[in-house]
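User: I've been trying to design a sequence by hand for this structure and keep getting stuck. Would you show me what you'd pick, starting by listing the structure so we're on the same page?

Assistant: Good idea, let's start from the same input. This is the structure you sent:
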C-alpha cells in the first residue's frame, strides 16, 4: 500500500527546520510513514536566505526529508512538462505518468551546490519576479477601474465570487488563462472545447489557472488592495496540490487561499496549517482543520 504523500511550503519548512529538538520526532515520523514531496519553489526560496548558518539549517532539513521523498520542479517547469506531454499525445495523456521529479535539486541539496553568489542572485531574482508579477496585476486594475465604476455591484467581494464571475464570463477567464499558458509552451491555440478538456484531465494545470485568478481578484478587482496578501509564490504553490494528499503551510494567507483553490478547482488535497500538522503527528493522526 503506498504511503500518504505530503508536501511543505517554505514557511512550514522553516518551522520544521528551526524547531530542532522539538520537531525531531516529526522528521522521523515523516521518514517512516510518508512520501514527502519537496517543492523546488520552496528550495529556491530557502537558498535565498542571506544568513549562511540559517541557510545551512534549512537545507539540512530538506536533505533529511529526502530520505523518504523527492523534489519536484517549480510550477512553471511542471506546466511546461505537462503541456508538452499533452501536445505530443493528447489521446493517451495521463498527468500522473509525466515525470516531474527534479533530481538536479536533490543533488544540489545533498552536495550543497549553492555558492554564496548564487544565493544572493536567487534573492534578487525572487524579489524582482514578485515585483513584476504584482505590477502586471496592478496595471490591469487601472484598466478595469472604468468598467467596474459603471457597475460597482459587479465587483467581487471574495476570491470565490471572483471565480464564479471568471467561469461564467464570456469568454471564460479560466479557459483564457489556460489557453495562454498552453500557447506559451507550444505556440498552439486551443479551441474552447479543447482547453476545457485539458483542464478537466490535468488537475495540476487546472490548479495553476485557478491560482492565477488569485491576484486577478486580490490586486485587479478587490475593493481595497491589502498590504499583506498572497504573493506570486503563494498562488503558484497551487501547482503542487494535486501531487500530494496533504499540503502544509504556516502562512495564514496562503492557507486560506490554497484551501479556496483546492475547493474551487476540485482538487483532492487537504491543506493543513503547520499547527494542525504537528498536532496530528502528536496524537498519531492528521486532523482536517
Amino acid at each position: 500500500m503506498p504511503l500518504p504523500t505530503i508536501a511543505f511550503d517554505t514557511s512550514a519548512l522553516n518551522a520544521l527546520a528551526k524547531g530542532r529538538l522539538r520537531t525531531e520526532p516529526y522528521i522521523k515520523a515523516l521518514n517512516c510513514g510518508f512520501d514527502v514531496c519537496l517543492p523546488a519553489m520552496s528550495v529556491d526560496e530557502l537558498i535565498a536566505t542571506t544568513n549562511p548558518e540559517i541557510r545551512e539549517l534549512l537545507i539540512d532539513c530538506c536533505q533529511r526529508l529526502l530520505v523518504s521523498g523527492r523534489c519536484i520542479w517549480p510550477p512553471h517547469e511542471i506546466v511546461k512538462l505537462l503541456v508538452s506531454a499533452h501536445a505530443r499525445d493528447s489521446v493517451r495523456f495521463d498527468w500522473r505518468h509525466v515525470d516531474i521529479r527534479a533530481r538536479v535539486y536533490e543533488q544540489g541539496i545533498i552536495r550543497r551546490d549553492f555558492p554564496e553568489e548564487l544565493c544572493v542572485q536567487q534573492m534578487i531574482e525572487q524579489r524582482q519576479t514578485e515585483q513584476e508579477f504584482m505590477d502586471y496585476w496592478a496595471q490591469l486594475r487601472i484598466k478595469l477601474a472604468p468598467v467596474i465604476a459603471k457597475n460597482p455591484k459587479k465587483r467581487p467581494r471574495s476570491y470565490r465570487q471572483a471565480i464564479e464571475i471568471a467561469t461564467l464570463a464570456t469568454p471564460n477567464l479560466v479557459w483564457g488563462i489556460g489557453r495562454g499558458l498552453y500557447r506559451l509552451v507550444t505556440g498552439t491555440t486551443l479551441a474552447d472545447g479543447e482547453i476545457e478538456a485539458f483542464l478537466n484531465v490535468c488537475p495540476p494545470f487546472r490548479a495553476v489557472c485557478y491560482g492565477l485568478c488569485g491576484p486577478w481578484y486580490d490586486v485587479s478587482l478587490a475593493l481595497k488592495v491589502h498590504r499583506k496578501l498572497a504573493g506570486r509564490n503563494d498562488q503558484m504553490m497551487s501547482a503542487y496540490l494535486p501531487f500530494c494528499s496533504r499540503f502544509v503551510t504556516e502562512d495564514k494567507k496562503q492557507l486560506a487561499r490554497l484551501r479556496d483553490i483546492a475547493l474551487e478547482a476540485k482538487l483532492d488535497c487537504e491543506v493543513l496549517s503547520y499547527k494542525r500538522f504537528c498536532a496530528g503527528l502528536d496524537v498519531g493522526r492528521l486532523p482536517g482543520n
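That's my pick for every position. To get oriented when you compare it with your attempt: The longest helix spans residues 116-150. The chain has a mean pLDDT of 91.
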